[in-house]
Structure formats: structure tokens, C-alpha cells
Design goal:
By secondary structure, the protein is α+β, with helices and mostly antiparallel strands. It is built from 6 helices and 15 strands. The strands form 3 sheets. A 6-stranded mixed sheet has the order 3-4-2-1-15-13. Strands 5-6-7-8-12-9 form a 6-stranded mixed sheet. The termini are close together.
């Protein structure tokens, strides 16, 4: 099976915008279509609590015919139009869809951050992990989230194989970002967040990119928009992942990034696995 995940940074902007950035996003959406994945995962959809509009659904149907849609949006008391996730899966697939609460602090469980698809033999779940925030003001809550989320995946893993993807908002090791020394206390590369990811893997999960590619350097999934030359200079971070239960790691065929051209921010990631 083939799966693709992408932090889209506003579904509405990508589908309906006409700015230079929106056009680049639309090219990425077309590139994803060309790969013909069985399932597509989008993070940071930024939709209203009512989810995609009729126009959004029509545009998605035109772009990705023969796919069903599942979404999870931010609802009160969380901020409106914030975070959010979405799955598109081929309509010959018949998963059970859940949007779990994991006992996270604050409004995190209301921010539309997780969707899980349950298939006969495995779970496919995506996450948009909370950012530790400017000044690390959300780091303490983020640490609790990491514990709760790891427990959630471990509980799924007791029942069936798990495939987990999304924007985990952490560069795990120094080789996962271009400038580790200058980012030591930056959100996404604190010791606390890295330890949280280490603990997650220790519960029985494999980082498929490292499993396939070893300690290759200079391969990233995100380049800061604020720095105009970040992508040209490849000053990136690898913060988007495909994880699998350790016991199916040998089933992974491909785990790689999809070229998003000159568009900065996140690039899609692809997993092929023989289940």
C-alpha cells in the first residue's frame, strides 16, 4: 500500500487561493495525485469547526475522485480555524474512523490533532503534534502530550499493527536539522521534546526513514518560510515522520520525501509498505 502525508498549512488557501504560494501548493496537490496513494493525510488544515465547506468538498472530489474524506477540526474551547487534520482514503477501503481524545492538557484534545483509521489488520493514524511555542511557553504541556500520545499508540499496538504519520514537531537527532548547535533551545529541538520522541520509539515503533536510509544527512521535511533562502540553502528540519510497529518494519519498501519544488514550509512524505 502507498500512503502520503503532508502538513498543508491551510486547506482553504491551498485549494482556493490565487497567490504565488497557493499556486505552489496546488502543484504539490497535483504531485500527490500523480503518486496515486491509497490514503492521503493532511495536517494543519485550519478549517472551521464545521469542517470543509461544500466548495472544498467539490474541489477535493475533482482533484481526488474516488476518495472518501474524514476530518477533525478545532472546536471550542480551542481556537477557531486552528490546527486540524484530514484523511482522504480510496473508497474501496472501509476503515472505522475515530478522532480520539488522549487526555492532553489545556485545549489540545479540542484542536483536531488526531484521526485514526482502523483496518482489519492495522491502524493508520495521523497526528499534528502541538508546537512548544514561542519562548517555549507550551513546552510543559507539550511534554504531557508526548507522554499521552505515546501511551495511545502503545495501546493501539497491543491490538493491531500501527502505522503513524504526521507533523511531530520535533527533529529527533542532530542529523535531523541543518543547524543543531544554534537551535539547541528552539521549539522542536529541545532536549525535552527529543526525549519524548525517543520514549515514543522505545514503546515499539520504528522511524521508517532512518530504517531505510540509515544516517544519511541533509534530508529534511520543513524549511522556514520566514527565511527566504532556507530551502535554497537546505537549512531544513526533519519533523514529519512515518512510524510503524517494530514488528512490521521489514515490510517497509519506501520511506521518502516528495519534491515540493520551490515551496517552503513542509514537503509531503511517502510510505510504501507491503502488508
Amino acid at each position: 500500500m502507498k500512503f502520503i502525508s503532508w502538513n498543508i498549512d491551510s486547506l482553504n488557501a491551498a485549494l482556493t487561493g490565487d497567490s504565488a504560494r497557493a499556486l505552489l501548493s496546488q502543484n504539490v496537490l497535483k504531485t500527490i495525485k500523480e503518486h496515486d496513494p491509497d490514503v492521503i493525510a493532511f495536517q494543519e488544515t485550519k478549517l472551521s469547526s464545521n469542517g470543509p465547506t461544500k466548495k472544498h468538498l467539490e474541489m477535493l472530489s475533482d482533484l481526488y475522485p474516488d476518495y472518501e474524506i474524514a476530518w477533525n477540526s478545532s472546536v471550542e474551547p480551542a481556537r477557531k480555524g486552528y490546527a486540524g487534520t484530514m484523511f482522504l482514503y480510496k473508497n474501496n477501503l472501509k476503515p472505522i474512523v475515530t478522532c480520539p481524545a488522549i487526555g492532553a492538557p489545556g485545549t489540545m484534545d479540542s484542536e483536531g490533532r488526531i484521526i485514526t483509521l482502523e483496518f482489519e489488520d492495522f491502524y493508520l493514524t495521523q497526528v499534528y503534534t502541538p508546537n512548544a511555542g514561542d519562548g517555549l511557553d507550551r513546552l510543559e504541556d507539550r511534554q504531557i502530550w508526548d507522554i499521552k500520545y505515546a501511551e495511545y499508540l502503545a495501546d493501539l499496538d497491543k491490538e493491531k499493527y500501527v502505522i503513524a504519520t504526521g507533523d511531530f514537531n520535533v527533529a529527533h537527532k542532530e542529523i535531523d536539522l541543518a543547524h543543531p548547535k544554534s537551535n539547541r533551545r528552539s521549539a522542536g529541538f529541545t532536549d525535552e521534546e527529543r526525549e519524548g520522541f525517543t520514549n515514543l520509539l522505545a514503546k515499539g515503533f520504528t522511524d521508517t526513514f532512518r530504517y531505510i536510509h540509515g544516517d544519511v544527512e541533509g534530508v529534511y521535511t520543513w524549511w522556514a518560510q520566514r527565511a527566504k533562502t532556507s530551502k535554497i540553502n537546505n537549512s531544513g528540519w526533519r519533523i514529519d515522520y512515518w512510524l510503524v510497529s517494530d514488528r512490521i518494519a521489514d515490510k517497509v519498501i519506501k520511506s521518502e520525501m516528495i519534491d515540493s519544488g520551490p515551496r517552503q514550509d513542509h514537503t509531503p512524505i511517502l510510505l510504501e509498505i507491503n502488508l
